[in-house]
Design a protein that fits this description.
Order of helices and strands: HHHHH
Largest sheet: none
Shape: elongated
Strand content: under 5%
CATH topology: Four Helix Bundle (Hemerythrin (Met), subunit A)
Structural class: mainly alpha
Number of domains: 1
Helix content: over 70%
Number of strands: 0
Distance between the termini: 18 Å
Length: 156
């Protein structure tokens, strides 16, 4: 679990423009997060083997898209911070960056909806509800892990 925490923290802090040698680490992180989501999904949603087999590839696509969108969103947030702090930034630059950030947010939401619409027909109504519970729990748990990694002294 600590390995996953470190991997997810690295992802959160990493920029989208990594060199190819550095790309191997994010791939490992993606694999760790995917493993976490798949195991927890199966456990919380209580899928049967047939459902699990079908849903696993959907989860993989969802996580891959989420990583790509998150990296883009983080990059745009960093760009917005720079533009806002730099007195010579033009309104056009700021508006373009704001628009790109908003697009990443919309893409994140669309990815979520696409995931739910794809897994929904494969699950019964109780499992569909568990998916929503699972996502809230998983996001909260990952955030707690990130915060713990950032503040190890607070855990003592």
């Amino acid at each position: 679990m600590k390995k996953l925490l470190n991997a997810f923290l690295f992802l959160t802090l990493a920029s989208g423009g990594a060199v190819s040698a550095q790309r191997q680490q994010p791939l490992k992180i993606e694999a760790d997060v995917l493993d976490f989501y798949v195991a927890e999904f199966h456990s919380v949603v209580k899928t049967n083997p047939d459902q699990f087999k079908k849903v696993r590839s959907v989860i993989k696509d969802y996580i891959e898209n989420r990583f790509e969108i998150s990296a883009r969103r983080l990059e745009m947030m960093q760009q917005l911070r720079v533009l806002v702090q730099r007195p010579t930034s033009t309104d056009e630059e700021i508006l373009r960056a704001t628009s790109e950030f908003d697009k990443a947010d919309a893409d994140m939401q669309a990815n979520q909806v696409r995931f739910l619409n794809t897994v929904g027909p494969l699950l019964n109504p109780r499992q569909q509800a568990r998916v929503r519970i699972f996502q809230q729990m998983a996001d909260r748990r990952l955030l707690q892990m990130i915060n713990s990694a950032r503040n190890p002294e607070a855990q003592k």
